User: Which sequence fits this backbone?
């Protein structure tokens, strides 16, 4: 585990987003960093495609009913 220095405004955005997404502030920051890293590694994929790819890698299979709900 390390310490990352970030801008105060970004920290506030992370804090607000973490509340909405029911994640800790650290988990929200980690999520955004992971998605950003994956987006840079796969620049042709959309956000939704990246999330689907990660869910598939974790053997999470969403049914059409859940996706359209």
Assistant:
């Amino acid at each position: 585990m390390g310490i990352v220095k970030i801008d105060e405004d970004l920290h506030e955005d992370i804090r607000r987003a973490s509340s909405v997404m029911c994640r800790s502030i650290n988990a929200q920051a980690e999520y955004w960093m992971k998605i950003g890293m994956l987006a840079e590694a796969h620049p042709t994929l959309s956000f939704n495609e990246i999330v689907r790819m990660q869910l598939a890698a974790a053997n999470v299979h969403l049914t059409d009913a859940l996706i359209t709900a």
Remarks:
- The helical segments are 8-20, 25-41, 47-57, 64-68.
- The mean pLDDT is 91.
